[in-house]
């Protein structure tokens, strides 16, 4: 590894990575803008078909833009059906303004088109593939590496870092508790104690000899410098890109990030059945104590409500994913964010 380890991992000129934000926030335009500014962008393949991912890859290649792709590792069916139905009835009134009968929902478990996406990335390789929500199967890791792809795994503890290293991956994504969106914990029913990003980077680096990409809670250039000093090979940012011109975040989400009445973020499973950090709102306050663990079943249960609420400008029923640095998310081009975060490195 050279003195600029981000070049070895990503081929970028700066150690700044655009984090993959599933659900529409990460767009082709955002990936292109981050990479053009000297960073490295990731497509978020979560919730998308292989055909949709392939179309985005073709779009990026048409402009000569390299990128990474992030995949969700499918988990076992763990939902308690009685608890699911009780929760669906409890939140039923939240769907009524949009003509949704949430109480009639049945649990939906899927693997997010896992095999099709692996096949796509083997047939049409990209420089880097990252995984979150757990450990990918060893055969997929080996096949991707044979195809010339560097493989990263998201970890939230030193134990997860060691388990990922045992798979023979090329690097780790150390996701601190400050990160917005879903936690990448491998065991959502038994998550490790929360660890801030800096200490997690040091723990992951000490537990393995792998390069570590740090993510979570970045609010400005001081955080980037501190995480690099802690041993990170590069730093990923997501929340700071949500209000940029190229972001696909909804207007409701963008406005909430700038709303002075939003006083902080919390970890919640109320929307999707998996721990995730977002701006506190009424839905979380009402239902977090009652929400069962069960991803993706709760994700599918509330998905239509969340989409309708976002379109209608109703932030109290939307998953307003955000990391703890959300106050520093600014409008304007994404390139300006990359430049601001790396100007003093």
What does this structure look like?
The radius of gyration is 19 Å and the shape is globular. It has a domain at about 5-75 and about 110-240 and about 330-340: TIM Barrel, CATH 3.20.20. Helix 8 (about 160-165) crosses helix 9. It contains 14 helices and 11 strands. It has helices at about 5-10, 30-35, 50-60, 80-90, 90-95, 115-125, 140-145, 160-165, 195-205, 220-230, 250-260, 280-285, 295-310, 335-340, and strands at about 15-20, 40-45, 70, 130, 150-155, 170-175, 180, 210-215, 235, 265-270, 275-280. The mean pLDDT is about 95. The strands form 2 sheets. It has an 8-stranded parallel beta barrel, surrounded by 8 helices. Strands 7-11-10 form a 3-stranded antiparallel beta sheet, with no helix packed on it. Helix 10 links the parallel strand 8 (about 210-215) and strand 9. With about 350 residues, the protein is α/β, with parallel strands linked by helices. The chain starts with a helix and ends with a helix. This is Propionate 3-nitronate monooxygenase. Pfam families: NMO. Its cofactor is FMN. Keywords: Detoxification, Flavoprotein, FMN, Monooxygenase, Oxidoreductase. Belongs to the nitronate monooxygenase family. NMO class I subfamily.
């Amino acid at each position: 590894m050279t003195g600029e380890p981000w070049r070895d991992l990503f081929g970028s000129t700066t150690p700044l990575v655009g984090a993959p934000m599933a659900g529409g926030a990460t767009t082709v335009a955002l990936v292109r803008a981050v990479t053009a500014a000297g960073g490295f962008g990731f497509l978020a393949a979560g919730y998308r078909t292989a055909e949709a991912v392939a179309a985005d890859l073709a779009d990026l290649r048409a402009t000569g833009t390299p990128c990474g792709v992030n995949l969700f590792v499918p988990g076992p069916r763990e939902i308690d059906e009685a608890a699911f139905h009780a929760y669906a009835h409890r939140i039923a009134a939240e769907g009524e303004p949009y003509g949704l009968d949430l109480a009639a929902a049945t649990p939906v478990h899927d693997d997010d088109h896992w095999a099709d996406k692996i096949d796509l990335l083997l047939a049409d390789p990209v420089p880097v593939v990252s995984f979150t929500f757990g450990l990918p199967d060893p055969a997929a890791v080996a096949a991707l590496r044979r195809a010339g792809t560097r493989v990263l795994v998201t970890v939230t503890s030193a134990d997860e870092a060691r388990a990922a290293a045992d798979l023979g991956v090329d690097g780790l994504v150390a996701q601190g508790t400050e990160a917005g969106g879903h936690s990448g914990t491998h065991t959502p029913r038994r998550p490790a104690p929360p660890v801030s990003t800096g200490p997690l980077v040091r723990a992951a680096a000490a537990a393995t000899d792998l390069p570590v990409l740090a993510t979570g809670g970045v609010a400005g250039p001081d955080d980037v410098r501190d995480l690099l000093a802690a041993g990170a090979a590069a730093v990923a940012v997501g929340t700071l890109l949500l209000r940029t011109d190229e972001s696909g975040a909804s207007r409701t989400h963008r406005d909430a990030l700038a709303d002075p009445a939003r006083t902080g973020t919390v970890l919640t499973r109320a929307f999707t059945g998996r721990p995730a950090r977002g701006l506190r709102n009424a839905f979380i306050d009402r239902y977090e104590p009652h929400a069962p663990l069960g991803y993706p079943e709760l994700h599918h249960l509330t998905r239509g409500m969340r989409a309708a609420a976002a379109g209608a400008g109703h932030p109290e029923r939307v998953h307003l994913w955000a990391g703890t640095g959300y106050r520093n998310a600014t409008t304007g081009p994404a390139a300006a964010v990359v430049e601001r975060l790396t100007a003093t490195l």
